[in-house]
Specification:
nucleotide-binding; ATP binding; ATP-binding; Rossmann fold; Ribosomal Protein S8, Chain: A, domain 1; PhoH-like protein; two-stranded antiparallel ribbon; three-stranded parallel beta sheet; alpha/beta; elongated; PhoH2-like
């Protein structure tokens, strides 16, 4: 139960805040108070997390994903789901926040994605860029990231500019390889249809008909 509840019941408090309910627990018994719909979602989330405890350690990110999954409105027609279609696979947005995120990417010129690690911000953005490229909505994909180390010291990196920034762009590369394939990604990079650029080199550039993804944007400020 400690794995399910979290340190000082942090997972229960996270569920309470997300659903606006109250949870009391004694041993392996839980009492939920709130609206009927919210308490039912809370029960489903707790059951889902309890099953996970048998094979994994529960953390706030898993709690967040379970809340998103079970908070999705039921009974809506399937065509209202947000599905990103690429030649290799279709990617379905999970939960109301991911669906709103995908809708915003498709409808707006500028979209900010804010959330914990592992909630699909980069993955869905890359999927949307591939869909836009394959349907001729854009002519190029530009991958941008601040070259900020995450605690490790990479030291001097050999190679040209794209090779130097490659280690920082691995999450986007992984998504591209899954959706397009390794060889096709390499060809598109050679033809400059997919461009890798450190943020420091983006100043005064004019980019038309491009899908630009700025990853880890919180590191753009000093």
């Amino acid at each position: 139960m400690a794995n399910l509840s979290g340190h000082l019941d942090e997972h229960l408090r996270q569920i309470e805040k997300g659903l606006n309910i109250k949870i009391k627990n004694r041993g392996n018994r839980f009492q939920l108070k709130g609206s009927e719909d919210s308490t039912e979602i809370g029960r489903q989330v707790l059951k889902d997390l309890f099953v996970m405890t048998k094979k994994a350690t529960i953390d706030p990110e898993r709690v967040h994903m379970s809340l998103q999954e079970h908070s999705r409105p039921e009974g809506k027609p399937e065509e209202k789901d947000e599905i990103i279609k690429t030649r290799r696979k279709g990617i379905r947005a999970r939960g109301t926040n991911q669906m709103a995120y995908v809708r915003s990417i498709r409808a707006e010129d500028l979209t900010f994605g804010i959330g914990p690690a592992g909630t699909g911000k980069t993955y869905l953005a890359v999927a949307a860029s591939v869909e836009a490229l394959e349907t001729d909505q854009v002519r190029r994909i530009v991958l941008v990231r601040p070259a900020v180390e995450a605690g490790e010291r990479l030291g001097f990196l050999p190679g040209d500019m794209s090779q130097k920034v490659d280690p920082y762009l691995r999450p986007m590369y992984d998504a591209l390889y899954e959706m397009i394939g390794f060889e096709q990604v390499s060809r598109l990079i050679e033809r400059n249809i997919i461009e890798i650029a450190p943020l420091a080199f983006m100043r005064v550039r004019t980019l038309n008909e491009c899908f630009i993804i700025l990853d880890e944007a919180q590191n753009t400020t000093a």
